[in-house]
From TrEMBL:
Source organism, top-level taxon: Bacteria
TM regions (residue ranges): 41-59, 65-85, 106-123, 129-146, 153-172, 178-196
CDD domains linked to this entry: GGDEF (cd01949)
Name under which the protein is recorded: Diguanylate cyclase
Any one GO MF annotation of this record: catalytic activity
Matching InterPro entries: Biofilm_reg_signaling, GGDEF_dom, Nucleotide_cyclase, PAS, PAS-like_dom_sf, Rev_trsase/Diguanyl_cyclase
Residues covered by the GGDEF domain: 373-505
Keywords, alphabetical: Membrane, Transmembrane, Transmembrane helix
Length: 528
């Protein structure tokens, strides 16, 4: 058995060519050529059976009848092996090597039987039968050299088994001139060997190239399927010709829902239909259509689940375009966070001076000439905050500042702005203010901020606040009003802790004169 296996392995060998080694995949493809098309096998088998039948009918000899019976049996066996392989390989891919080993002995026997039978026909003295047998054998061996060229050792062995006995028969038939067949027979075999080798080299080169292309395509498909962004290619007509799985997943669809050879707006609308419904589908189609008609700026799509998608177009020299679809939700959040902290204090989360100025200017412009309800700028400064830092440390001071910010938020109405200018200074921009309303609000702020502060260490801190208020007049800029509020705050702190002072516009404003105590209703130390 080892010897038999070794002979079969040698006959079924697939030697390396100048183009390189034979990979496992290429060898499997070469072996499978034995079973790809059974029609040439069937037709050559029928031709061989026909010669055997002609010999049996013309010669009426036992060997011809035996040849006919064996030829039919071997043909049936070869077709049976091919049929079984093809049937069993349909549900699952089979490795062709075991089946090639089953088929090969029958193929070799068929050629040997054909060669011996033809030799017998030549030696029979029946010239017509001999001519028929030689002609049919030459055709069958030529077909074998082409059909089985993927297995060169097998094809050459089959050609030799079919041709060599004919030469022996021509030589052994000494009383005729059949010996003249020997030289062309030798050249025929040499030609068939050359054909086999040439076909084999071409097949291997082709399969190697196909395998390289397949591997490259597989890598491309893997990259396309697993890339973190959606990708689709649109042709010159604007139709989607390539799309990856991520393009569907970003819109909540599956890869099976991808529709190719449709315009890009229809493609985008369809993949968004399953998760987001008809309303968003229509919106996606409209926005995508408008985007294609404009410059190649990115298209931002906000989905109803809160995610942001960004689509960009990149032109290709052949007139097509590559569209990249990216989930930029986290980037948008980061940008919003950066923008937020660019306008807000990092410790308290309140607005900073830059945002304060822009917002106050807008409110002051909107207020216009309403003399009854104006925009008020309230400058708040903590009294005793330095002692908190000195007694409990800067971490405790930060805790107090955060709590102050929370208390101010609770006091103010929706839409009013609180900002921290730095240290323990805060500014409030309040709308619809008059002098009495402003005084009452300032007193409430002082009362809220005067409550004790429970620190994380368990200690209690105490601070108070002083407030300077300036009501914006028509035509004033924010910085002018803020300066007046700062002057009023200076007067309030000079009067003692927990005090409120107003600043008035006009001739007295330069001196920082405030309203009298009765109108301010705050000339008392609320902290004590």
């Amino acid at each position: 058995m080892p010897g038999k296996a070794s002979i079969l392995d040698s006959i079924l060998a697939t030697p390396a060519t100048e183009d390189g080694r034979i990979t496992v995949a290429i060898r499997s493809s070469l072996l499978s050529t034995l079973f790809e098309d059974s029609r040439p096998l069937f037709m050559s088998g029928v031709a061989s059976v026909f010669v055997a039948l002609a010999a049996a009918m013309r010669l009426q000899q036992t060997w011809a009848i035996v040849w006919l019976a064996l030829d039919i049996s071997i043909l049936a066996a070869r077709l049976g092996v091919v049929y079984l392989y093809r049937v069993q390989s349909r549900p699952a891919t089979l490795h062709p090597a075991p089946w090639a080993a089953r088929y090969t002995p029958f193929g070799l026997l068929a050629c040997l039987l054909l060669g011996v039978g033809t030799m017998a026909c030549v030696m029979s003295g029946d010239h017509a039968l001999a001519s028929l047998a030689v002609m049919v054998t030459a055709g069958i061996l030529g077909g074998i050299a082409s059909r089985n060229a993927a297995l060169p050792c097998l094809a050459i062995t089959q050609v030799c088994l079919g041709a060599v006995p004919i030469g022996f028969g021509a030589v052994l038939r000494a009383d005729t001139d059949y010996w003249i067949l020997v030289p062309p027979l030798i050249m025929y075999v040499a030609a068939m060997v050359s054909v086999v080798r040439r076909h084999y080299g071409g097949l291997v080169a082709l399969m190697t190239a196909e395998q390289g292309h397949a591997e490259l395509a597989a890598r491309f498909d893997a990259a396309l399927a697993h890339m973190p962004h959606g990708l689709c290619t649109i042709d010159e007509a604007g139709k989607v010709v390539i799309a990856n799985r991520k393009a569907a997943e970003l819109f909540g669809a599956t890869v099976e829902m991808l529709r190719l050879n449709v315009p890009l707006p229809e493609f985008i609308g369809y993949v968004g239909l399953a998760k987001f419904g008809e309303a968003l589908r229509t919106q996606l189609v409209e926005r995508c259509t408008e985007w294609l008609a404009q410059e190649r700026a990115p298209l931002d799509l906000k989905l109803v689940d809160g995610r942001h998608l960004e689509m960009t177009r990149n032109p290709v020299p052949d007139g097509s375009e590559v569209v990249i679809i990216e989930d930029v939700t986290e980037r948008k959040k980061s940008e919003a966070k950066i923008l937020h902290w660019a306008h807000h204090d990092s410790l308290t989360g309140l607005a900073n001076r830059r945002y304060l100025g822009d917002h106050a200017e807008r409110l002051m412009s909107a207020a216009g000439a309403n003399h009854e309800h104006k925009v008020a700028i309230m400058y708040v400064d903590l009294d005793g905050f330095k002692s908190v830092n000195d007694s409990f440390g800067h971490n405790a001071g930060d805790e107090v500042l955060k709590t102050v910010a929370d208390r101010l938020r609770n006091v103010m109405r929706r839409g009013e702005l609180i900002a921290r200018l730095g240290g323990d200074e805060f500014v409030i921009v309040a709308t619809h203010m008059s002098n009495p309303v402003g005084a009452r609000l300032a007193c409430r702020i002082i009362q809220e901020l005067a409550a004790p502060y429970l620190l994380s260490s368990g200690a209690r801190a105490q601070v108070c606040a002083s407030v300077g208020i300036a009501l914006a007049e028509k035509g004033e800029r924010f910085e002018q009003v803020l300066k007046r509020a700062d002057i009023a705050l200076y007067d309030a702190k000079a009067a003692g802790k927990g005090m409120v002072r107003f600043s008035i516009a006009g001739p007295d404003a330069a001196q920082g004169q405030g309203f009298d105590d009765a109108r301010a209703s705050n000339d008392e130390d609320i902290c004590h």
